[in-house]
Amino acid sequence: ALTGKRTNTLGLLIPDLANPFFAEVARHVEDRGQEKGFNVIMCSTDYNPAKEAKYISLLKQKQVDGIILGSGFYNDQMIAELQQENFPLVMISQEIPALDIDTVSVDDFMGGYQVTQYLLSLGHRRIGVIAESFQDNPANVRWSSKERIRGYREALEAAGIGFDEDLVFISNSTIEAGKRVAGALLDAGPHPTAIFALNDVLAIGTIKAVRERGLKIPEDIAIVGFDDTILATIVDPPLTTVAQPIRDMGYQAMDLLIEKIEGKENTTKRIILSPQLMIRQTTCPLT
Ligand code: RIB
């Protein structure tokens, strides 16, 4: 708290509680907070800068000791102001290279690379991508998506296949939007034989769009997601996806924030954890 008095209360800002990835992040951040004697005030911002500003000022009024910002927080100016006030901050699942901010994230580049290498090994050559954006704005493509696409592109190029931007579509992060955008990708021309959806919510939307067109998964179209949320195992067929160590991320973000609050950590730390490809039943060799 800015008065110097500790309240043992922290803020967590996430863009969308309805996305199980963020629900799981919130759960683990809160669990770790409780273990360490901190209460967590959770705020869901809907990717809306006005809501972000409102919640940040509310959290400051409540004299929280520090804030964890979930990926999808793009108000760099607000972050810079908090940093100037020496306000303890940690960002989870997003990098802002221009800002000197502590982060805990997964190696998104590596995740994108591994998925693409795996799909190539199954014989796929035309691999579509559904990337995450928000407010229907292609300029808002998420940092994590950019990194995953960079991995996709490098793996393709390493295999001698050129990057085709016509195979990359952008979607808001909901099942309905993912379904609509995957539908547009499928209808845009000869369809790809595999689609890499850059999170599990988008992968579920993609499954729906593929089914609606009478195509079989994985024989006609293979699908891969990212996150390994609960959705990946309850969907039929179970989804091949990239596991993020969400529990570890939540715990490490909380521990880092507490170190900052207690003044034990003054240097900027960027913790990058390893992704893991989980092969299930939405992928098979191309016949
Ligand atoms: O929407 C969930 C996604 O946003 C996750 O993949 C996470 O890494 C974040 O960028």
Automatic annotation (TrEMBL):
Name of the protein described by the UniProt record: LacI family transcriptional regulator
Keyword DNA-binding applies: yes
Give the fragment's position in the full-length protein. Answer: 54 to 340 of 340
This protein's species is Caldalkalibacillus thermarum (strain TA2.A1)
Query: Which key words tag this protein in UniProt?
Result: DNA-binding, Transcription, Transcription regulation
At the top level, the lineage of the source is Bacteria
Any one GO MF term held by the record is: DNA-binding transcription factor activity
